[in-house]
Write a structure and sequence with these properties.
The complex is a heterodimer of chains A (256) and B (457). Chain A has 256 residues and is α/β, with parallel strands linked by helices. Chain A has helices spanning 44-52, 76-81, 99-113, 121-134, 152-166, 182-194, 235-253; strands at 6-15, 18-28, 33-37, 58-66, 69-70, 84-87, 94-98, 145-146, 170-174, 201-206, 219-224, 227-232. Chain B contains ten helices and 23 strands. Chain B has helices spanning 23-31, 37-53, 69-73, 89-92, 131-137, 139-142, 156-164, 398-405, 411-427, 433-455; strands spanning 2-8, 14-20, 103-108, 111-112, 118-119, 127-130, 169-173, 183-189, 197-198, 201-206, 211-220, 227-236, 241-249, 255-264, 269-276, 281-290, 296-305, 310-319, 325-334, 339-348, 356-365, 371-380, 386-394. The radius of gyration of chain B is 21 Å and the shape is globular. The chains are: A alpha/beta (256), B alpha/beta (457).
Chain lengths: 256, 457
């Protein structure tokens, strides 16, 4: 069997003394797309934040092995250079930092880490101009400050655009669908689907089944109260749509 | 000039009100008897006003955050005699804006140095010369403006400058003329002695429908605690388009007080920048009078401080006519134990309807010991206006740093990018591309340098 891209074993974490994750187990292999669904407060975004390396979380147990190495021991920038990417639920506006400058800096850090020569400004511009079309983003976005003054939909598309540029091995999409209208949702879904390859993997975190009409995951997991309570194929999302979280949790919990 | 710290003023602290003049200054006053009567009278008023006002103290509302006691305590040295004082073109070339295509006027210790100055070919009727020279040859050209806009009434330093100024730059652009390249006015100090004082006085007159870009820079070739007390009067006629940039990078011991008194005509478009990087204590007063209808002005500023520096910006934007827009943007980046002060007053006079006045002051504190004081003040006497102000004082946003790190950018680099961006918001408003690029490089270098100094034990 090939090596998993991500193996989460019994991961527990708390924030300011409150336990949020209570033993998560999840293994993701190359070429797979996983979806994690769960109600508000189930721990979805906490899981995404811990995987990307955000500070402020206290890991109380378990481990995360990413491509054979201890992910939690790495700084956020090291994780990014190793191919981890988080599409933020709330992309940050950074006035004064030009989008192209920012992306080129990020792209070159990752290339440097891989022992590849850095691209100069002209080479990089040619490279990103191709990518920007994939997300139907206006080219002038590249001249604007990062996320500054972008609409909600533009911000989310910009996250997927960055993902297209940085070509991560493992991408986490944290509620990328929230706040998108149907057209934007289709563009984002198309972008994500296009970026799926046999050697990378994606973890899509969502509250609603809606996104999964356009992105077809290989596996769906239901997160509830800090645990994955049910896993299955894409049909699980539809089932969830019918029963709702309460119905499913109730049915799952009842036999115990 | 020697100032005596004497008369206690009621219960308040000592005020410096008396000027006891030494021989050199007396000689100067005698010589200035050749000056036009209107100027002599303005000087007399200035001297009388200074005697009444004295140097401000922390009890003055407009000076409550900036203590000028160190200036009051100085034993002022007579200014230096005219001359190059060893300054060469090569030495000057280390300073910013000295390679711009428009050329420059150089003033050494406040005195015009013609042999160091050179200008590109100017359109017909445009004058760029020393103020002393124009006063001697064509005083009628300056009489309508000089000492009319920078009023000695309420500002002791302006009063002092009016009393003692000897020289400075005079720029005159006749109606309809456009000066394509930026003109640089370079004030360099070589003062070796504590207390050496210069009172540069500049007058910039942009006629109706004219265009011009002017940079005033104040730099040091010494590390003495000298004192620059500059005043610039800036007049933009109707429909004139003016860009003005004041760049202050005096040495870390120097004291720098400057006033920009600006008068804007109908439908003019003016942007004036103030960049403060140097001096132990600097204060820039900007008085902008929006005297015509439908004009637009931007007051834009950036201050970077470290060590125990203090950078103060004080401004009064006076909307006297309807349909005027004024936008003020000031950002400060404060390291170590340094201090930034911003005081912005917007006055909307009765009848100045449809005024659009906006004021923003943002301060980025790079250390726990840095401080910022910010004081907006709106006085509105018209009822159909839009006036907003906002001020922030804070540290780098952790969420922004995380966002950059999550894309592969190391923490330290992310920090620097954000600090640079904070400065970039201001620098991006510089319209002249050559000036903007040079300023951007310079500020970037200075931020790096300040970080290194901050990082060292």
């Amino acid at each position: 069997m090939k090596q998993p891209i991500l193996a989460i074993q019994n991961l527990s974490a708390d924030v300011e003394g409150r336990q949020i994750l209570k033993g998560i187990n999840l293994t993701i292999y190359p070429g797979e797309m996983h979806a994690i669904m769960g109600p508000n407060g189930s721990g979805k975004s906490t899981l995404a934040a811990i995987l990307a390396g955000r500070e402020g979380y206290n890991i109380t147990g378990g481990e995360v092995i990413y491509c054979g190495q201890d992910l939690l021991a790495l700084d956020p920038e090291e994780r990014a250079c190793e191919g981890v990417f988080l599409a933020f639920q709330y992309p940050v506006e950074i006035p004064g930092v030009n989008s192209t400058y920012f992306l080129k800096a990020a792209y070159n850090e990752i290339r440097k880490h891989r022992g590849l020569p850095e691209l100069d400004a002209m080479e990089f511009l040619a490279f990103v101009t191709e990518k920007v079309k994939l997300l139907h983003l206006p080219e002038d976005l590249l001249k604007r400050p990062v996320n500054y003054g972008f609409s909600g939909g533009e911000k989310k598309r910009n996250e997927i655009f960055q993902m297209a540029v940085l070509e991560p091995k493992f991408a986490i999409l944290d509620e990328t669908d929230s706040g998108l209208d149907i057209d934007a949702l289709k563009i984002v879904a198309h972008g994500v689907t296009t970026l799926k390859r046999p050697d990378n993997a994606q973890l899509v975190i969502t509250h609603y089944q809606r996104l999964l009409n356009f992105i077809v995951p290989d596996f769906v997991h239901v997160l509830y109260d800090g645990r994955i309570v049910k896993s299955g194929g894409k049909e699980l999302a539809l089932e969830l749509e019918e029963t709702g979280y309460d119905g499913m949790i109730h049915a799952t919990a009842a036999p115990a | 000039m020697i100032m005596n710290e004497t008369k206690p003023n009621g219960a308040l602290a000592h005020r410096v009100t008396e000027l006891s003049l030494n021989r050199t200054e007396l000689a100067l006053l005698e010589r200035s008897a050749d000056e036009p009567a209107w100027l002599l009278s303005a000087r007399k008023v200035g001297r009388a006003r200074f005697a009444e006002l004295g140097l401000p103290t922390l009890h003055d509302e407009d000076w409550r955050f900036t203590n000028v006691a160190p200036i009051a305590k100085m034993v002022f040295k007579p200014r230096l005699e005219p001359g190059r004082h060893g300054v060469t073109e090569k030495v000057l070339s280390r300073f910013p804006f000295t390679a711009l295509a428009g050329g420059q006027l150089v003033f050494v210790n406040g005195q015009f140095a013609p042999e160091l100055s050179s200008l590109a070919l100017l359109p017909a009727g445009v004058k760029v010369m020393s103020l002393a020279a124009v006063l001697a040859t064509e005083p009628a050209l300056v009489e309508p403006h000089l000492c009319r806009h920078a009023r000695a009434d309420s500002n002791a330093f302006t009063a002092l400058n009016t009393t003692f100024f000897q020289d400075g730059a005079f720029i005159y652009v006749p109606a309809g003329q456009a000066v394509a390249e930026p003109i640089h006015l370079l004030f360099v100090s070589t003062a070796k002695d504590h207390g050496t004082t210069a009172h540069p006085r500049n007058l910039i007159v942009a006629g109706r429908g004219s265009r011009v870009t002017v940079i005033e820079s104040y730099v040091s070739l010494s590390d003495a605690a000298y004192f620059t007390n500059a005043v610039t009067e800036l007049v933009a006629g109707d429909n004139a388009v003016v860009e003005h940039l004041k760049f202050q990078d005096e040495n870390q011991q120097a004291f720098h007080i400057a006033t920009v008194a600006a008068h804007f005509g109908r439908a003019s478009n003016v942007v004036t920048h103030s960049i403060a990087l140097g001096a132990k204590l600097s204060r820039t007063n900007i008085y902008a009078t929006l005297a015509g209808e439908g004009l637009e002005c931007i007051l834009n500023g950036l201050y970077l401080t470290r060590g125990e520096q203090l950078a103060d910006h004080y401004m009064v934007v006076d909307h006297a006519q309807p349909h005027g827009a004024s936008h003020e943007y000031f950002n400060g980046i404060l390291a170590d134990k340094s201090k930034g002060v911003f005081h912005g007053r917007i006055l909307v006079r009765p009848g100045a309807q449809k005024t659009d006045a906006k004021q923003t002051n943002k301060n980025l504190l790079l250390s726990d010991d840095a401080t910022a004081d910010t004081k907006p003040q709106l006085e509105i006497y018209a009822d159909d206006v839009k006036c907003t102000h906002g001020a922030t004082i804070g540290q780098l946003n952790d969420e922004s740093i995380f966002y950059l790190r999550a894309r592969g950018i190391p923490r330290e680099k992310a920090r620097r990018m954000l600090i640079h961006a904070f400065a970039g918001e201001i620098i991006d408003r510089v319209r002249c591309a050559a000036v903007r690029q040079e300023l951007d490089r310079l500020v970037w270098d200075r931020l790096e340098q300040n970080q290194k100094i901050e990082g060292s034990p």
